[in-house]
Amino acid sequence: MDTERIFQERLRQVRREKGLSQKRAASELGLTDTGYRNYETGARRPTFEVLPRLARFFGVSSDYLLGLSDDPQVVRSAQWQG
Questions:
Q1: pTM value?
Q2: Which of 30, 36, 59, 76 stands the most exposed, by the fewest C-beta atoms within 10 Å?
Q3: Is-contact 66 6, C-beta < 8 A?
Q4: Which residues contact 45 (CB under 8 A, 6 or more apart)?
Q5: Is 46 exposed, middle or buried (0-12, 13-18, 19+ CB in 10 A)?
Q6: For residue range 55-64, what is the model confidence (pLDDT) as tens digits?
């Protein structure tokens, strides 16, 4: 499976595990609804600034989101700051 597909699926998975709609996740991340939805559908890729925000918010590593690791490696020391 390619990196883009893995990213889309894992982003959707961690959002659902957190019990959030796409709209709510976008709002809490300070993104537009469309912008966030585009990440999950693959219409757009997150920037270098947004990828770490996504990872911190969902409490996983960016390596996990990108499919470079199968271990979510929950980040315990970094709390979401908004």
A1: 0.85
A2: 76
A3: yes
A4: 4, 7, 39
A5: buried
A6: 999 999 999 9
